[in-house]
Structures
1.
Amino acid sequence: MNLYIYTFHRFHPFFILNINNKQLNYSNTKINKLISIKWQLILKNEGSFTKALNALTGKKIKVKMSQKYNYKCKNISRNIRCVWLENSLYTKLIFARSLWLFIYNNNINIELIKNRPVGNSFIEHEIDIYRNIHELYYGYSEYLEKNFIRHQAIWGRKYTLYYSYNSYVIIQEFFSPYIVNLFN
């Protein structure tokens, strides 16, 4: 199975773990055998990962928009957003792609997410969300390896964010192998 990052750039997984949040506990032996503790802390993170990166690096994390599409049909707006999260040294740490579904009468303002980290935006505006992690992947992508400047396998995850019991965004994140060095 190939996951497309952009139309012409693929992520080739060595394996995909289809999971739900109940399976993400730290006593799950299948996950513990496959994934190191440091990577588990990254992949299982339930809070704002940008805030966690700020704490680990002691530096502000920047959001660099690489693609954004907005499709409108009747009273529904779909937004696709692709961003890089970088530290102040322009080291790319995460590539994230998100698909947003907005119905115009909802309480989430699309302006919240413009050029800002998603998690930080929700926290700052005191919007209570729930995250359901669906998949963890491990694989490679020439495009991501080139941008991360690391020729190593890459971890990723896919999850949905819910607000008021409705799904609003599906997010895929791909993590630079460099991130694990921040724990040393």
2.
Amino acid sequence: MLKESLENRGSLAEIKARLRAEVFTALDDPSEMKPAISNDNLLIFELIREFLDYNHCKYSTSVLVSEVGLPKVPLDREFLRHELNIVEDAPSKSVPLLYSLVSSYKDNNMDRVPKVQGFTKSLDNLRATSTTHKVTSDNYESVPVIVKGGKL
């Protein structure tokens, strides 16, 4: 009954995430030098950190920062925006830059890939069955795009 109660309140997932973060922190050797992060990887990790912070995934953020060896203080959003050549409008300034990148990518690739049959239906099923994270993108008709041969 306790497990069900915690699940219903959404606390169980948070407890599990916190436990994983604490275990990782306990196992992580602070004297171990982390390998240098390439500039591209640093930008990607910072986009992920901003996304996690925005979505209140503080334990996931703490594991990411610790595991990868990111600086404790995030890079400035303006610096990220400039490095990634992102032009923002007023609404996009209130959400993580990753959303702008994904939105731009989708807009630029909508006509290049044929619709994958059943993808929209499976997204609708996810929206109907998800208990912890609701999919809120209405009228979602994009298709997954597989990028081949790119180098990060």
3.
Amino acid sequence: MSLEYAAGPRSLQILALLPAAILASPHQRRSGAAAAVAPRRRRRARLISFGVIGLAVGGSLLSYGFGAYFSIFPGSEWSALMLTYGFPLSIIGMALKYAELKPVPCITYADAQALRETCATPILKQVRDDVIRYRYGDEQHLDEALKRIFQYGQGGGISRRSAPTLQLIREEVTEDGKYCLVLVFKAKALQLSDFEQRQAKFASFFGPGIAAEIGKGEDDLYEVRLISQTTT
């Protein structure tokens, strides 16, 4: 079964480190067919940072503007205009780059891709789209959701510095043919029980029409499986 992967070079690096058994879909891992899996890149628009665009355009205008002002480059009559626009664009680009939150890798199995449009709930689609693009001004992906679920600084909650961080997402199909969006978190300061006791909160926050399952990965990784109850 083929894979779709997104979110730029970082996804390629992660996939390159994963063994074939992990790259296999859940059905293939259970059937022992992992060795036959080969990743396939799906053509899609490359994500570009607005901060990079601002710095590139602003820096180019500033460089050429200064060069034209000192007669190094032609177009001295335009130098003032290029400097006028180049400076603020560079400042905006630096500010966006500073506030930038990079997208997380997304691994999508072909059978899950086929089910996404018909079986994924609107909230699951929104979550997927939000975390695989650049964001600005957020401390981390799903920050508001994690704040409410883990109740930062409140009684029975956790401290903000112990909060889990989203590492990647995975789209797959369950044994009974349901669409599933898997959120993979890294949390060094938390235990599996910290996630399990909030299982109902995950289902409620990302619902309606969602069932949540909790799993433990390697090292400090934890999986939250959001399973759509919508069927074709």
4.
Amino acid sequence: MDEDLVLALRLHEEWNLEVAEHGLVQEPLSLVDASWELVDPTPNLQALFMQFNDQYFWGQLEAVEVKWSLRMTMCAGVCSYEGKGGMCSIRLSEPLLKLRPRKDLVEVYHNFHDEVEEYRRHWWRCDGPCQFKKPYYGYVKRSTNRAPSAHDYWWATHQKTCGGTYVKVKEPENYSKKGKEKTKPRKQPAAAAAATAAAAKKKGNP
């Protein structure tokens, strides 16, 4: 056997023994390892996706767009695909994920039922027969102030089978008050009001 090869094999064996004794080589951290919460608690979404693309998908997802969605509250994320040769876009819910533990962003599966329910703060309830039927008991819960109407795919069926009227029964605290404040006309400053009155009086005199 070649002397150089023998030396290389011996050095390699010695290195393996030294590693085993001193633990110089460590297993890579799991994606959901608890230490990530201290090392990188809020990773950059795009950088994280590029890392996963290289590590798990052999760089095949370079054309995929990944971004946060501010309005998505019914699910943690969606993937939109336009077909062969088309664009692929992944949108993740910022309200549900941005302030969650890091593992919730990277793990394969997580149940977000509680988080979704937290954002559904506008409630309506039907006053018809469906209020006594499972599983919803006449309730419609939404994250936005959009009352049930003909724009809902199930509206026609509801009209035929129940025919009741939806009445709003719950909304975020002070929500109605905030809406009234936005539409309330601004009060005219005292000085400006006095000047306007004086100008009107002067205009009325010959």
